[in-house]
Amino acid sequence: MKYPRILLSLLTFLLTAAACTVRPPLPFGACPTPQQVAWQQMEMNLFCHFGPNTFTGAEWGDGTEPEDIFQPTDLDCRQWVETARAAGFKGVILTAKHHDGFCLWPSPESAHTVAQSAWRDGQGDVLHELSEACAAEGLRFGVYISPWDRNDPRYGSPAYNEAFVRTLESVLDGRYGPVFEQWFDGACGEGPTGRRQVYDWPLFNATVERLQPQAVIFSDVGPGCRWVGNERGEAGRTNWSTLAVDGFEPGAGSPPVEVLNGGSPGAPHWAAAETDVSIRPGWFWRASETAQVKRVQELLQIYYESVGRNSLLLLNVPPDTRGRIDAVDSLRLMEFRAALDAVFAIDLAAGATVSGPSRGRGFAPANVLSGDYDSYWALPDDRTTASLTLEFPEPRTFNRILLQEYIPLGQRIAAFHVEMLTPEGVWQEIARETTVGYKRIVLTPTVTTTALRLVIDDALACPTLTRLALYHDTVYCAQ
Ligand code: FUL
């Protein structure tokens, strides 16, 4: 049988092309789900603590507050979401139920909710308003629902776990649309009868997974993302997104805070750190704390030590007794946004010539400049060290080095340093760090150079790097 010449040529072409195609590195260790990747790409979300404590000034209500105390005079969730969007946040998480047990929606499981309050004649529903506002403004909607309940008389008995499942169902069953993150607080104190609850975490997590399978579940130990181990806004300088979770649970049973802060290299579960911190001294709004709203310098430091250290930043900006974000807080957020925009306006690595080893076609060193997250530099399977050199057509002045690994394939880089070329032609070290992860921003002295070298000194598997950018920050002054 004779084949037409054109078919033979096509076959030869296809075989040659297949032989030249370099396969990507195989995933290494625990890897994030697409939802976890999308979650981390949000980078900054708004946390809103709102409820009876807003009106009493307490940090932890004891559950005996009369429902009528919840009386926002001018609730405007649209204003929260517009503020969040203007500040660059991608999602909003509301304390739908804090430890006092008061529900900001008419939960059928509780007699301590907006439905029992004189506010809007018992017809109000903050979750409804916030979820609608998020949908209208293109932000994602998330909920904090505290298992610790100082009001529910069933708290401290097995019946409470079942009731808590129904509580979750009344928020997560779709009536408020998709929920991107379920925030589980591990706190477990005494209820109104003086008893503590033994939480059924597998049941709680399974309920969220059943109703909102795309939601990332936060708790001290995940499963979706983990607590960063402090409320100061500080992720570990070494920060792995992997964590050993077997044998641990949220609250008193969680790993030591240092482990939460830095993760565990090569551990079998992906649970990136989420940094929750308040713009004010407390989690709830208080007139007396308005003078202590964090300054832009503090917010920038928090940004560098959370987003810049492979963590998501969940910044709490609590609405006031009107049900609006205080003008002082929103102005500060706009100043923070302006500062970030100024710092990250110009990528000084653009236009550089990039050289270094690579695993082959499609994984070139120059991919680190492309700005496309899915286009990355990768090394052959057997390499765990490498260096990448950037040469600039003219000297560049900078003090921030932004690096990003391609995390869908796992977190790999364990140690790196950066050198610059001095006018004398000598390579001089300007930074030495450990992990990179989804995003790492290294603060260096302000330097001017014509060439930069990134040296990966150690990695758990062949490294990937999707971004290397340089910035000159003239706004933030480290103390
Ligand atoms: C803690 C709570 O006890 C605080 O009140 C606050 O909600 C914080 C985010 O989590 O565990």
Q: Could you walk me through the main structural features you see in this protein, from its secondary elements to its overall organization?
A:
This protein has ten helices and 18 strands. Helix 9 links the parallel strand 9 and strand 10. It is 23% helix and 23% strand. The chain folds into two domains: 310 residues, Glycosidases (TIM Barrel), CATH 3.20.20; 119 residues, Galactose-binding domain-like (Jelly Rolls, Sandwich), CATH 2.60.120.260. By secondary structure, the protein is an alpha/beta fold. The radius of gyration is 25 Å and the shape is globular. The structure holds beta-L-fucopyranose.
CATH level-1 class of the largest domain: Alpha Beta
CATH-defined fold name of the largest domain: TIM Barrel
What is the CATH homology-level superfamily of the largest domain? Glycosidases
Query: Outline, from the CA principal axes?
Result: globular
Question: Which assembly state applies to the chains in this document?
Answer: single chain
Bound molecules: beta-L-fucopyranose
Strand content: 15-25%
Counted by DSSP, the helix tally is 10
**Secondary-structure content class:** alpha/beta
The count of domains is: 2
